[in-house]
Design brief:
alpha+beta, 12 strands
Length: 190
């Protein structure tokens, strides 16, 4: 992950196009190059996308590689592995020339981050506070290294967490009908 030295405003970042397929996050005004996902992380995110489709969530409410503007000491955007959008947010994104959830749009219902090696602090600490400040109702941290899934529910401005592993059924306040275990998610690589 490399960081550019030039500070950018959110508007400059949203208008930035280097003509490549490189993914970036804007972190406190600095453009950060996002490395390619590991195959395991990509498979886990794809498995969850397909599983949520099978559970009846409409395809247009599921998105991968959609960025979201969050609060930081300066302009910050994040690029979650997977988001479940509300009908209202899906409608707000229709026709947008960039797949970005901006500050005046409603937050997504659910954000999933699959932890990458050496990025634990980013997903467990920084994004947790940024997503809470953005009012995201539910945030999943899927950690293939520790083989745990942490489900964070936004309650009165803070996240309350439950950790699931092995054959424990994942309890999701936003998706109460799930019959999904951590083991099913981490076996997605097969």
């Amino acid at each position: 992950m490399s960081i550019t030295s030039q500070k950018m405003t959110l508007e400059e970042y949203l208008n930035f196009d280097d003509g490549t397929d490189t993914y970036y996050e804007l972190v406190n005004g600095e453009r950060v190059v996002m490395p390619p996902e590991s195959e395991l992380n990509r498979r886990i995110a794809t498995f969850l996308f397909a599983y949520f489709l099978q559970q009846g969530i409409s395809f247009y409410r599921l998105t991968m590689k959609t960025e979201i503007v969050v609060s930081g000491s300066r302009a910050t955007t994040r690029l979650p592995d997977l988001m479940v959008l509300s009908e209202e947010l899906a409608t707000a994104l229709e026709g947008a020339n960039r797949s970005t959830v901006i500050a005046d749009m409603p937050p997504p219902m659910l954000v999933v981050e699959v932890v990458s090696p050496n990025q634990e602090k980013r997903d467990y600490r920084y994004k947790r506070s940024e997503y809470a400040a953005r009012g995201i109702t539910e945030y999943w941290i899927v950690d293939p290294m520790q083989q745990i899934i942490t489900v964070l529910e936004w309650v009165e401005g803070l996240y309350e967490e439950q950790v699931f592993q092995g054959n424990e059924q994942i309890i999701s306040p936003m998706l109460p009908y799930l019959e999904l275990t951590s083991e099913m998610v981490f076996n997605a690589r097969r």
